[in-house]
Amino acid sequence: MNGDGGGLREKLMFMWGYLPGALPQRSPILSPMEVRLPPSAVAGCSWTDVCGGGCGFAMAISSSLLIPLRSLNFCPFSDSGSGNSFHLLPNAGKLITWGSTDDLGQSYVTSGKHGEIPEPFPLPTETSIVKAAAGWAHCVSVTEDGEVYTWGWKECVPSGKVFADPSMGLSLEKDISERQSSFLTEQVSPRSQGSRSSGGTASGMDSRGVGEEGAKRRRVSATKQAAESSSSGDETLSALPCLVTLSPGVRIATVAAGGRHTLALSDIGQVWGWGYGGEGQLGLGSRIRMVSSPHPVPCIDSSPLGKDRSTAPSRGSMGSEGHGFRVPGNYVKEIACGGRHSAVITDAGALLTFGWGLYGQCGQGSTDDELSPVCVSSLLGIRIEHVAAGLWHTVCISADGDVYAFGGNQFGQLGTGADQAETLPRLLDAPGFESMQAQRVSCGARHSAVVTEDGKVFCWGWNKYGQLGLGDVIDRNIPTQVAVDGCVPKNIACGWWHTLLLAEAPT
Q1: For the structural domain made of 11-67+87-179+234-504, what CATH number should be given?
Q2: In what residue span(s) does the RCC1-like domain sit (predicted)?
Q3: Burial level of 43, CB count in 10 A (0-12/13-18/19+)?
C-alpha cells in the first residue's frame, strides 16, 4: 500500500482488533483507537504510512525520531539532562513496531518489541525507510536508496549480509548464504501444513483454516525449544535483519510479503521474488520449494529497459484458453502477496495472478494452481489500479473506484453477502456501497478493508477479534462502514487480527 505522507496536516493513526503483546488482558479493541508515536519521537515527527503486520504485531512508518543509542550502532551525542545517549536522524523514515508474537513462538527479531508501546525497530541503517510489509512471520522493508532488509522466519530470508544487535550477544555481521537449512525447510514449509493435491483438495485443513493454524502451532512448538536453547538464538526459527543481495543497479521501490514468500518491485517495473514457491506463488513456472536468492519474476518481459522502453507490449499467457495473447502493459506498477498466491498490476491496468488456487483466489474461473503470472481475463477492459491479497482471497479496485473480489469466502471476506467462494472476480454492489469510489484496499488473513475517495472506511469479513472496528465481534459478509470521527482517512492496512488506519487531522 502506498502511504499518504505529503501535505502539512498532521498525520494520525488508529488501530482496532487484537495484538497479544499490546493487549495482555486479551481484550480486543472493538472500535478505532488512536495510536501515539513513541515517547522518543522528535517534536514535529509524524506518522507517514501504515503497514499492517503479521501474526500478532503491527508496523508503521514515521518521520524523524530521536533514537536511544542502544537501538543503533552509530556515533551518538549525549543528552546531558538524562544521561542517555541518542542519535538524531532528521527527516528519516523509521519503521515502528509494537505488539508481541509470543503466541506463535516468534522471536524478538520479528516484531522488535514485546509490549504495548510502539518503538523503532533496530534496523542497521541510517537511511530512511519508505516501505515495509509483513507476512505470517517475516518482515521486509525498503530504504529510500532502494535497498531491502528482511528478517523473521529463516526460510523467508535470502542469502545476504546479516546484522545483529550487540545486546543479543551476537556478532555484528554474518553471512548466511551457507546456512540455509534443508531441515528447517522441511519442518516449516507450507507443504507440512496440508497442501493441495493433484485432485484439487486440501489435506490437513478444514474450510475455516483450523488445520492451517494448528499445524503451524505444532511446528512452532517443535522448533521453539531448539531456538531458545541455541547459543546464537537465530540458528533455527528466526533470522536477524538481512540486507538482501540484488543484481547490480537494481533499486527496489516497494515490497509485499506473503505467507512465506516475498515480492519486490524495482523502480523500473521489474518484479523479484524469493522464499517458498511450492504452489507457484513465485511465478517461476514450477513448484520450486525454496528460492534462497532473489529471482526476476517474468510477468511481462525480461527486458532490462522496464518501463522506459517504448516497444509494443510483449506476449504473455492468459490462462488455458488464452495462451499467446498479449499482456496489456510494459511494466508492473503494483504487487501483492497472499498466503500462498500473488498478484501484480501492469501499467495498462491488467491484473495478473499466480500461485495457490484452491479457493479461486487467482480469479481464473477454476481452482487450479497457476505456476506463472496469468492475466485475469474476465477483468480485461477494466483498468485495475490497486490490489490486495489475504490468506485465501484477493480484492482489487478499478480506475472507476469499483471493488472486485474473488477467492475464499468462509467468513464473508469477499463482501458479496454470501459465504460461497468465487473463482471469478465479483463486483461488490452491497446497498450503500455500490455508489462508493474505493481508493485504497487491504486484506488481512480473513478480512478486507477499503478507504473511499470521500474519506469513508469500510470493513468486512472475519471479526472474532474486533478487526472490523464495528464495536462488536460479529462477522460481516458485506462492506460495513467504520465510524472514524474527527479526521480524514487516507490509507489502511490489515494484519492478521488487527487493522491500522492512517488519517489526516482536520484543517
Answers
A1: 2.130.10.30
A2: 236-500
A3: exposed
